[in-house]
Amino acid sequence: MKTEEFLQEHKYYRTLIDSATDYVVAINRNYQIIMANELFKNEFGMQSNEFCYRVWKNREEKCEECLVEKTYRDGRGHWNVENVIMKGGRVANMLVRTIPVKNERGEIVYVLERATDITKRQHIQENIDNLVDNLEEMLANRLEELQKSEEKYRTIFERSRDAIILTNSHGRIVEVNQAGVQILGYKTQKDVLARESTANLFVEKQDFIELQKRVAQEGFVVEFETRLKGKNDSEFYALITSNVTVDVTGKITGYVLIIRDITKRKMSQQQIEKRNIRLDILNSISKTVSSSLNLDEIISSTIEKTLEVLESDSVRIYLIDDKQKILKLVAHKGLSPQLIAKPFMKNRKPGDGLLGQTLLDGETRLVDNYLRSQDPYVDFMIEEGLHTTAYIPLSNKGKMMGVMCVSSHYPVELTTEHIEFLTAIGNQIGVAVDNANLYENIKRAYEDLKDAQEQIVQTEKLASLGKLAATIAHEINNPLAAVLTYIRLMIKLKDRNKFSPERLEDISRYLLTMESETARCGEIVKNLLAFSRQSEIKIKSTRITDIIDRTLVLIAHDLEIKDIQHRKNIAPNLPNVQCDFQQIQQALLNLMYNASDAMLDGGTLTVTANRKAGNDRFLDVMVSDTGCGITEEDKEKIFDPFFTTKEEGKGVGLGLSVVYGIITRHNGTIEVESKPGKGSTFKMSLPLAPL
């Protein structure tokens, strides 16, 4: 607070200055007027922090023989007779005197400059007889004014709602107002004066020392927060505004302390802070519940945060086991291992003790004295040293999930706010348990669905194997017949002794043909075994051309029998795709068989592979036919399970559904374009493998 604000804060001191009949101003080291009495303001007017030489003498710079400067320099008072410009331009002859006002350390706080108008002194001397009567009247009026000022000060002093204590320079209490008597808890002012020093009012002596130090250094202190002692050492929170009082020479004569009782406000602030902390804890728990499905993590975090904000020191959380219909202890903290090891602490039947009863009726229970408790396990709780326990039901959407027990090893008053806070935490735990159960159910259902999908894929694969059986048998039979024919021919040659050197060239040709045909059989069998083998999905970087070529080998003979030509339009330098080789081969084989079945009178099957237009993260593989096509109505249901347009006995409608599932699991897409009588094109988009 500035010096001017300090003076304004204490009207009594200001009133004394205003009562002076001379012009009085207070001037700081920068030659600025920081305070002036009403006589001065009425004559000269004054704006905040105006320079004294500008106001007094209408100068733009300080006087050559400045009395204020001398006083600040040597710390003594000075006087001089000077001409001063009054209102309206009149020049008055003034007797000017300066007085330094110092603090306890002897430093000058400001300089009081007092000016007496002596312009008419000569005239007054000549008319001294006439002025005697006037002087008596003036003195009477002045006395009356002083009495009014004293009454005004006394009224403010007595009617103040804050305690006002006046002390001497040693801190001894010399006066206290009625508000001070009441705030300190006494009946009379005499009782307060008996406390002698203001130091005896402070709970912490260090606070008194700090306040005294700051007042001595700055001359005043505003809203110094501390704790004070009243009658019978009853404590309360207080804000103290204090300043020094000085005489005309600047010597400290005492202190003024204005004390405001802020206990209620302080307690309200503490309640708000506690409430905010609880809200932060609930918000934190809520975020944990919404961001995590790990029930153990949520419960552990909840226990830690609950103990942070409550005075209790132990927590137990029980959850209901739906299969066994019992409460099971899932987490705890703050209790001895000996108590936790008890069977009734680990498991509890519904209705057994206060814990079990809370589960049955969903009602909160509070035990503040186990000696009066009817719980069957009260002896163990007393042996553990527990004093207070709250049993909080854990529920969600009206369904009981378990019970939370919050206990303390010392007497604690659990208020309504505490119970509401614990109930809110219990509701959050109930939500977490429900979410965790729902997640487990969904996870289990997903695993079941995944297994079912794999079974469907395998079933469709076996169906494809059935289709392959006839063509593979014929495919293998042809090379085997050729091998058998050459073997029989060579046996005849041997029996007829025809293995002459002239026949070696023919025999060599027979053997090469047998080798080629046998290798062909081996390749067909190898591809068939690789396709039929059931294995886990293995996603890895794969060349799409390898998958296409291997699939065409499996279906080549079927296409030949049906008089269907096949073509490949593979773009050069295609990047690898990220996929499971056998799964994509299964999808391609299903699409090719569907295309083959759609071309009853022969046709052309075309397999195309290129980069996806407009998206450099995918590769397109298209299987096109010149068959019967698909109607618009059937296109909407073409990927639905068990939907088929084939004759009865020729399909169950799982082929395209399996293809859709495989491509979807690979984070790809599949779509179809078709016109009845013109043919169809199925386009698979597969993600590229990372470089």
**Radius of gyration (Å):** 52 Å
Amino-to-carboxy terminus distance: 70 Å
Note the beta-strand portion: 15-25%
- Helical amount: 40-55%
Number of domains: 4
Protein model, in words:
Helices cover 47% and strands 24% of the residues. With 691 residues, it is an alpha+beta fold. The chain has four domains: 3-119, PAS domain (Beta-Lactamase, 2-Layer Sandwich), CATH 3.30.450.20; 160-261, 2-Layer Sandwich (Beta-Lactamase); 271-530, GAF domain (Beta-Lactamase, 2-Layer Sandwich), CATH 3.30.450; 535-687, Heat Shock Protein 90, CATH 3.30.565.10. A six-stranded antiparallel sheet has the order 13-12-11-16-15-14. Helix 11 packs antiparallel against helix 12 (295-309), helix 17 runs antiparallel to helix 18 (504-532) and helix 17 (416-495) packs across helix 22.
List the helices and strands and how they pair.
Elements: H1 3-9, H2 11-18, E1 23-27, E2 33-36, H3 38-44, H4 52-57, H5 67-74, E3 78-85, E4 91-102, E5 108-117, H6 121-126, H7 128-159, E6 163-168, E7 173-176, H8 178-183, H9 189-193, H10 205-218, E8 220-229, E9 235-246, E10 252-261, H11 263-291, H12 295-309, E11 314-321, E12 326-333, H13 337-340, H14 343-346, E13 347-348, H15 353-361, E14 365-367, H16 378-384, E15 388-396, E16 399-408, H17 416-495, H18 504-532, E17 540-542, H19 544-561, E18 564-570, E19 577-579, H20 581-598, E20 603-611, E21 618-624, H21 632-635, H22 655-665, E22 669-675, E23 679-687
Parallel strand pairs: 18-20
Antiparallel strand pairs: 1-2, 1-5, 3-4, 4-5, 6-7, 6-10, 8-9, 9-10, 11-12, 11-16, 12-13, 14-15, 15-16, 17-19, 20-21, 21-23, 22-23
